[in-house]
Design a protein that fits this description.
Elements: H1 24-34, H2 36-59, E1 64-68, H3 69-74, E2 84-87, E3 93-97, E4 100-104, E5 109-114
Length: 116
């Protein structure tokens, strides 16, 4: 009878016949290596969204305020990352990061809003 080897560390696997790993540590390590590239993309995107959300929350204490683009950029806000877009009947387009949104106004200005 052939002994099964752990897919991660190559040690003998004891237990059930369909068992592939010798320990939870090896199973987690193997799967983390397998999913590393897609996890990095998701992790980086979530980090960027979290940063944008923090910037909007810091700049919009009252729930509705007007601010310049340069102030947002100075806080490292990235206009490429948002979670949703809302278009009004009047044609205005709001960009949201979860419940914090911004509306581009004329010139350098943005209206920051919080969705209730």
């Amino acid at each position: 009878m052939e002994k099964k080897k752990c897919l991660e560390c190559d040690k003998n696997v004891l237990g059930r016949i369909d068992k592939k790993f010798c320990s939870d540590y090896c199973r987690n390590t193997y799967n983390n290596k397998l999913n590393r590239s897609s996890n990095n993309l998701i992790r980086n995107t979530n980090n960027r969204l979290r940063k944008n959300y923090t910037v909007l929350t810091e700049l919009n204490k009252s729930g509705k305020t007007k601010i310049t683009r340069s102030k947002m950029i100075n806080k490292n806000f990235d206009f490429n990352f948002f979670t949703s877009i809302y278009k009004t009947k009047a044609g205005k387009v709001y960009f949201y990061v979860y419940d914090q949104g911004y509306l581009p106004l004329e010139g350098e200005y943005y209206l920051l809003v919080k969705r209730e």
